[in-house]
Amino acid sequence: MSLWGGRFSEPTDEDLKRLNDSFGFDRRMYGQDIRGSIAYAQAIRDAQVISSEECDQICAGLETVLAEFETDAFVTTADDEDIHTAVERRLTEIIGPVAGKLHTGRSRNDQVATDLRLWTIDAIKALDALLDHLQRALVEQASVHTDTLMPGYTHVQPAQPIVVAHWLMSYFWMIARDRDRLRDAAGRADVMPLGSGALAGNPFAIDRPQLAENLGFSSYSQNSLDGVSDRDFVAETLFALAMTGSHLSRLGEDVVLYSNPGFGFIKLNDRYSTGSSIMPQKRNADPMELARGKAGRLLGNLTGFMATLKGLPSTYNKDLQEDKEALFDSIDTLESILPVVIAIISTLHIDVDRCRSALTDDMLATELADYLVDKGIPFREAHHLVGEAVRQAEETGTTLTTLSLEAYQQISNHFEASLFESLQFEKAVARKEAVGGTAPTAVQQQIEAGKQWLSEWNS
Ligand code: ARG
User: Do 280 and 172 share a structural domain?
Assistant: First the structure.
């Protein structure tokens, strides 16, 4: 018997049950559901709807149900439509008809909204710890490579020399923003809808501010119609998760590229590389491809759920049950990717010589323009003159460092022998000293700023 079967004379169709039931995926909210019910039992006791003895019985029974879930001893029945009905069904078996008093003034509408908010806050906290690990792994690798030169790219074309630490730290700041966004989303989830009833509110004068405090919520909803249907926090969380996934996909792409023998800058530890069943030489970066690929489903969960929300009429509608699979899947996806990405970054081998030997003289063209700027030439003109030098080098099979001084001086008499001193990768990097640049001194400051960020975040 379902909990709402009283008005029906025929049993529910089996196909409808399969479509309608959510216990298969919402049972993982058992902890939050039982926490919510214990607090609610105390609220209706305080409102003198149930006696202290009845409340004690209900709470003890709920603790037993909780223990059953936690030890995998909970036995499901065909009538367990969702986590809320399953807990109440089992509670009734354990303590008898008094269990029927728990749901007084409450609806599954305010119950599920409360459960999912508690779940989201817990999930974000767990994910935040993983992101913290990733940032620490990045800082650790970066600290070793503040002087390791590598090519920097725009459009995947060689651009200017940078240091490896600068590349690694760029991801540190992406993750910092992700953590910030997730914390924000958790803040918006931190509003208790319980006491909204089905839609109109609670008729038993429960003390909602007290109930919110007991459940660890910072505040409570101000409008019961909005309270039961507000899933903005789910959409926001899905966005923050999709953005995180998008950052991990970019890191994935960089690692795939840089570990390609054509680049050869990095090598994945054997434990985190995969081989080919036919080509014995292969060392693939499958996990980073998965990090790249799974960004797609994170985005899908966000857009799918946004489409579900659009145009819904006021208050609770069953469409909202779609919130959970999207959210659970996005959280699970990141929880599967992150431990591997963290391990890959921590164990990454950076081939210092390959990084260095991939630098080509053309990446110094901007340095040469800056050299002319130092001599008072407007940058636009300098850019043009160096462009001519690049063309001549290309045509004569030389490079910017082997093109003759005479050739340079034919282009402009501002070029002097000292130009060759500006054509050094170390110098090029060292000049980018303004905060946020790739000079080793600036990168060391950046790493300190990163460490400071981490310690402030956790304080
Ligand atoms: N399983 C439902 C959900 O996830 C719980 C709320 C059901 N409410 C209702 N009026 N049918 O949304």
Answer: yes
Closest to 87 in 3D by CA, of 34, 44, 40: 34
* Cα-to-centroid distance, 227 and ligand 1 (Å): 14
Tell me which residue range forms the domain holding 236: 109-357
CA nearest 199: which of 224, 231, 221?
224
Is the domain of 412 the same as that of 295? no
Report the pocket of ligand 1 as residue ranges, CB < 6 Å: 22, 26, 82, 108-109, 112, 316, 318, 320-321
Model pTM above 0.70: yes
**55-85: per-residue pLDDT in tens?**
999 999 999 999 999 999 999 999 999 999 9
C-alpha 65 – ligand 1 centre gap (Å) = 21
Query: Which ligand 1 atom is the nearest neighbour of the CA of 320?
Result: 12
pLDDT (tens digit, 9 = 90+) per residue, 393-412? Answer: 999 999 999 999 999 999 99
SS3 26: helix
29-39, pLDDT tens digit by residue?
999 999 999 99
The domain tally of the chain equals 3
* CA–centroid distance, residue 96 to ligand 1 (Å): 24
227 and 198, same structural domain?
A: yes
Q: Classify residue 1: in a domain, yes or no.
A: no
Give the C-alpha separation, 242 to 303, whole Å.
10
- Residues 381 and 284 grouped into a single domain: no
227 falls within a domain? yes
| Catalytically active residues, by annotation | 155, 276
Q: How far apart are CA 384 and CA 366, in angstroms?
A: 11
Q: Rounded to 5 degrees, what angle do the CA atoms 115, 188, 249 make?
A: 95
The confidence band for 277, taking pLDDT boundaries of 50, 70 and 90, is confident
